[in-house]
Amino acid sequence: MNTLLSLFLNFMQFGLFGVGGGYAAIPLIRTIAVQQNGWLTEAVFTDLVAIAEMTPGPIGINAATFVGLRVGGLAGAACATLGCIAPSLVLVTLLSWLYARSRGSQAVQTVLRTLRAVIVALIASAAIALVRSAAWAGGRVDWAAALIFLAALALLRWKKLNPILVIAGCGLARALMHAAGVV
After folding, report:
1. Crossing angle of helices 59-102/3-17, nearest 10°?
2. Is this prediction's pTM over 0.70?
3. Alpha-carbon distance 116 to 124, whole Å?
4. Residue 153 has what pLDDT?
5. Rounded Cα distance, 61 and 59, in Å
6. Is the pLDDT of residue 23 over 80?
7. Per-residue pLDDT tens digits for 85-136
8. What average pLDDT does range 174-181 have in this prediction?
């Protein structure tokens, strides 16, 4: 199959089934880009998540654009991005019309409660996969990455620091560790 068409169709699949936002859909992006198509390695996928998180815009669209650019250049980026957003344009229009007509329904409220639980599970799965790939390199624990992860978690969770400052601080900490020969 043509690479551009493959990018479009694969990310259209992501756009259709990537329920719950970018973080919940990270396992699906990983399946498409790493496992099914071999477009990225695990290490590059981890970098993709970091880059997609740091750049403005939805993580799923950023990831699609990144993968498309890497696989098919500018045309690949356009195809992957269009594939990613096309289902949303259609589905959101249809769902908003349906929701406006039936928002008081008990069945609709039950479905929404169920979806919330599934989305939490998807986000937890993505978090575990990212922690594993960041802290376990080549079958051994990367203690520096694990320490930076725990520090970032503490700063974000309990100190409520700005995520941009935490990202910048973690990058600086790792660079200083590298410069000092610790890692």
Report:
1. 50
2. no
3. 12
4. 92
5. 6
6. no
7. 998 888 889 989 988 888 888 988 898 889 888 999 988 988 888 888 877 7
8. 92
20 and 52 co-located in one domain: yes
Q: How does pLDDT run across 43-69, given as a tens digit for each residue?
A: 899 888 888 888 888 888 999 999 999
Q: How far apart are CA 98 and CA 11, in angstroms?
A: 25
Q: Count CB neighbours of 28 within 10 A.
A: 20
Q: Give exposure, 130-158, as e/b (b: 16+ Cβ within 10 Å).
A: beebbbeeeeeeeeebeebbeebeebeee
How far apart (Å, rounded) are the C-alpha atoms in residues 21 and 32?
16
Q: Is 58 exposed, middle or buried (0-12, 13-18, 19+ CB in 10 A)?
A: middle
- Residue 160 belongs to domain spanning: 142-183
Q: Which two tokens stand for residue 4?
A: 């551009």
Residue of 14, 56, 54, 5 lying closest to 33 (CA atoms): 14
Do 112 and 22 lie in one domain? The reply is yes
Whether residue 103 sits in one domain with residue 160: no
Do 93 and 177 lie in a common domain? Answer: no
